[in-house]
Amino acid sequence: MKLNSLNTASRVLLPTLEELGTARSLTVAIMLRYGDVAGILSLKTDPRHYVSAEVYFRDVQATSLLKKVRGLDVEGIDRRAAALKKWWQGEQQCYQTNERLAKFNYGGFLDHQDLAVFRVLRQAAKTIHSWIGPRPPNLDEIDGRFGPGATFSDRGRLTTVPDKITSTPTLTPSAKWYILPFLQTYWGRVNGTKENEQKGNLSWVRGNRFLTVPKTGLIDRAIAVEPAINVFYQLGLGSTIRRRLNSRAGWDLDRAQEIHVQIARESSVTREFATLDLSNASDTVSLELVKLLLPPAWFEELSSLRSPFTQVDGVWVKLEKFSSMGNGFTFELETLIFAALVSASLARCGRSNIIGHDFFVFGDDIIIPDDMSRAITAILNYCGFSLNEDKSFSGPVPFRESCGGDFFEGFDVRPFFLKELVDDPWQLFPDINGIRRSLLRLTAFGVRFPHNVYEKWLALLPSPLNRLFGPEDLGDIVLHWDESRWKYKWENGIRYFRGVRPIPSLLHWKNWRPDVVLASALYGVGDGLLGITPRDPLLSYKVAWVARS
Question: What is the pTM (predicted TM-score) of this model?
């Protein structure tokens, strides 16, 4: 049986909902039976209204099962239109912030409130200066790199590194200073060969391109697809900010997620820290705020690589925001700005302000001392940011959420989200493992694991796929269970498990010239022999023995 529609999915979803056994889960089951998917997607579960971690988990799991299913077309819901509306709201918010902050950058009358805010902003600017230094590296010292996604001119599946190397590179006029460093890269050398002359060596564009990607059943996520040369060096500057935050501030963004999750767990019990989440954060970092907080040399460098315009449905729009998702340094920049604003607010209140000890920031996930929530929210609001009230928690509420970790009185209550209604049983392993992890959370409340429900999910798989059990550290190539169901063999002291191995389609290197293959290899892509895996490859699968290291 295939999980390729809501009708077939309901054969396992309905027993799961009934097993959860609350008024909410039974409501969702009834709505599913009658096909009211829009109604299910509109439901919310607020932990502030619960006193029991178990009841909350059962309700939120029932509510969340279909929230993030990709490609779930619901009558009356235009996910792209909703994302575009939110994008325009972000631009309007940035315009208002730019108007408000311009007085600090260009001189203007400051009232008592402005002066109080200015002291915090000045302290934040000094903090950023101490964390990343007065200036970025020289142009020839910036280690540019390719990102995994599309660029302004590289679309669809033609977004591999060799595709980007052979296509005509795009850049904005303000990034012209990067042409010489670009020409000295392997990419630039290939681009300058005679074989590429007929294409034209560079293509000038005004900015990035608006695009949406799946987020939830109600709304897509807005991103911006950047020009190729811009994003290559944006990623390099983002890495520089990341390294300097680590070396000068002691905050390692590569480890920050696990730290955030641990602090959220502990604070759901102690209430020591509040967890804040900002709404539409990346699209509300305004131009004037970045100019106000960053050292001038850093602002000029980042400005030369940012896109000043976005192409929306064929029309160029001049941006009020500084950068957006899709820009290679946006994540590090927003982390830097939010961390500096929190640090400065704590310092102005006479509090200790060491990042990684007194507060924690990872993108727009912010963890602060609980009693500072109101003061820090006020400065964030003044700087143009809006608190996501649904995902921010403080005070006596026994719930904290950060970086994908949801905790109620110390219990892990993160629900499982079904991501796709797939039409291939080989691809069901992540869903079956995900629902098992979710059902196992019930055992923390003294409830027996519902084997009957789990077996219904297993029944989606034909034999022998439904017997490929193994340890969790092998990932979703096996079905997770304890050793009682494992089937393995020993060879030369190594244990092998039967699992599902995806076989991606390969683009053979013969599709590209030898100099492109060499340049790709020098960028660490492929081995120059077999080929390269395209983005979103067509997969086939086979059952094979897999070594457990």
Answer: 0.93
